[in-house]
Amino acid sequence: MKLVIIGAVAAGTSAAAKARRNDETAEITIYEKDTDISYSGCGMPYYLGGLIRRREDLSPRNPAYFRDKYNVDIRTGHEVLALHPDRKTLTVRNLTTGQVFDDAYDTLILATGARAVMPPVPGLALPHVFPLRTLGDMNRIDAFIKSHNPNQAVILGTGFIGLECCESLSGLGMQVTLVEKLPQVTPGLDADMARLVGDHLREKGIPVHLDNGVARVEAAHVVLSDESSLPADLVIVATGIRPNVALAEAAGIRLGPTGAIAVDERLQTSLPHILACGDCIEQTHLVTGKPVYRPLGSTANKTGRIAGDVATGGSLTFHGILGTGIFRLFDRTVAQTGLSEREAVAAGYDVVVSHNIKPDRPEYMGGREMTIKSVADRATGRLLGVQIVGEAGVDKRIDVFATAITFGARAEDLFHLDLAYAPPFSTTKDPVHYTGMILENALHRNRPLLSADALAQMIESGQPYTLIDARVEKQYEAGHIPTAHSVPQDRLRQAAETLDPDVPVVTYCNKGVTGNAAQNILLGKGIRTVFNLSGGYRMYTVRKRQDHGTV
Ligand code: FAD
Ligand code: NAD
């Protein structure tokens, strides 16, 4: 059995290692056009920021390691030029000698990954402008920083790479400015959660230009679409990636609607004897069952292993993804899994959404807050997705939610999870439990929630409503929603007698708990529709602070 793999980073080398574990006799060759293999792209922002001191720690394995440990022949500096599926051969160029030759395979695995997207604007070839996709890119940025000592960095794009690099370059003492073509940072999050990220950037003194593309890059400036000019002696282009599919497409392999290679659960492409894995394939979303393109190292390693197993007669299958992702930004962790509210609505779900602000452990143990936004399906109660922005404990919660969604949990199931508790680790009722309780109340106990955005729309629409600030007067006086009446919870029972039961009421407090207590009182007093402001005054003020334009 001759297995040929194209690409030797995360997916390709995982496939080779698994294939060898399954089959000692297979002949395994990997062609890689680059010189670096099996490296941790995910660690590159931290190397640039000085957190990882030794470059070798990111790429501890070389071709000799794979030859000795796995009997796998990795040929770096070899680019595959064409596939010939009818003959089961491929054409390869040795980039050092220029020699072009054909090789044969019984099974072929495409692990060709993805490449950085460079916007079509003048100036991106200037020597101080870099993408960050490969180890070579990282080395070039590192060398430039060391030789030019830049002070002003502009980063184009506020996705994962843009924000991770923002933290790293700021840590080196550079003044970083972010430019984002969308009206929000962090494209995967809903706008309300993205505002929490924007708030933190502001706290850290990072200017962000939203809703603004780049027009051109000049020697010492980046000029934006609105012709404003930002000083820049280093520019990082982090404007997304595209799958490398040219080889596959030219060979007649079917691409999916996302533009990445379409595969089935055995990672078979549309042509026999050709599998694909990693950042070049699209995945099936576990909630919608629809194809999506969520290129991540976690998935590249998993799909590589599965492809190596399938190629050697194994029975593994790929179940799909939730797009679970996480990154750190200074003192915040930002994470998401499953569908955002925007995606869920676009997919046709009637959603119930909650915002829940809770510490990761008791305050007496130094608990730090996180804001959890959760999205559930009104019809079935199924949890569809979660986003979290917080100071601590976010990683643990997002993985609990990802597990729950994977197994089809309904919102009310969350409360019943038997989660570990002791004061150093969590609260007696964990933030995950609270999320379930709030969603269950909204779904099944007539305790509807209203988001800050929906409240703003209600106010603007001119429809009749009563807005009740249920906090103590001192808090109301320190700041409140303009049309709100101050009725602290202890005076609410009496005040309820004066309310028209047919006019909808919205209650709020700081984070939602007292707002919910006020909601209970008013519903008990016969008011027909009472909403609690989701995430309370806190989510409302985040909304107020940021208009489109500049954070
Ligand atoms: P790639 O890494 O793109 O490798 C594909 C290889 O195929 C390339 O080396 C390419 O040269 C080779 N190739 C392509 N065409 C040919 C050809 N014709 N002939 C020969 N060789 C070819 N993911 C996470 O889950 N968490 C993180 O924290 C995270 N952080 C990241 C940080 C950065 C800065 C970057 C850039 C990525 C990060 N990722 C992260 C994503 C993760 O690194 C990728 O998902 C992963 O590297 C994909 O692996 P891959 O093997 O599929 O593709
Ligand atoms: P991304 O898709 O996450 O973000 C790209 C951002 O650039 C978007 O916000 C987009 O609106 C913006 N943009 C696009 N064109 C622009 C323009 N002309 N001007 C200004 N902004 C523009 O992509 P990325 O940050 O480049 O990361 C690439 C991939 O690497 C991601 O898809 C992710 O899967 C992976 N990654 C993951 C992690 C992690 O999991 N922690 C970390 C780094 C990278």
Q: What is the quaternary state of this protein?
A: single chain
> How is the main sheet built?
5 strands, parallel
DSSP summary: helix tally? 17
Ligands: flavin-adenine dinucleotide, nicotinamide-adenine-dinucleotide
Rg is 26 Å
Runs in which pLDDT lies below 50 for 5 or more consecutive residues are none
Integer average pLDDT: 96
How large is the share of residues in beta strands? 15-25%
- Helix-strand category: alpha/beta
What does this structure look like?
By secondary structure, the chain is an alpha/beta fold. It is 31% helix and 24% strand. The chain contains 17 helices and 30 strands. The strands form 8 sheets. The protein has a 5-stranded parallel sheet. A 5-stranded parallel sheet has the order 9-16-10-11-12. The structure holds flavin-adenine dinucleotide and nicotinamide-adenine-dinucleotide. The site of nicotinamide-adenine-dinucleotide (NAD) has 24 residues, from α5 and β21. Flavin-adenine dinucleotide binds next to α1, β2, α2, β4 and α8.
Set out the fold topology.
Blueprint: E1 2-6, H1 10-22, E2 27-32, H2 44-48, H3 63-70, E3 73-76, E4 78-84, E5 89-94, E6 100-104, E7 107-110, E8 114-116, E9 129-131, H4 135-148, E10 152-156, H5 160-171, E11 175-179, H6 191-203, E12 208-209, E13 214-217, E14 221-224, E15 229-231, E16 234-237, E17 241-243, H7 246-250, E18 274-276, E19 283-284, E20 291-292, H8 297-311, E21 325-329, E22 332-338, H9 341-346, E23 351-359, E24 369-377, E25 383-390, H10 394-406, H11 411-415, H12 431-444, E26 449-450, H13 452-461, E27 466-469, H14 473-478, E28 485-486, H15 489-496, E29 505-508, H16 513-524, E30 530-533, H17 536-545
Parallel strand pairs: 1-2, 1-7, 2-3, 7-18, 9-16, 10-11, 10-16, 11-12, 26-30, 27-28, 27-29, 29-30
Antiparallel strand pairs: 4-5, 5-6, 8-17, 13-14, 14-15, 19-20, 21-22, 22-25, 23-24, 24-25
Helix pairs in contact: 1-8, 6-17, 15-16
The chain binds flavin-adenine dinucleotide and nicotinamide-adenine-dinucleotide.
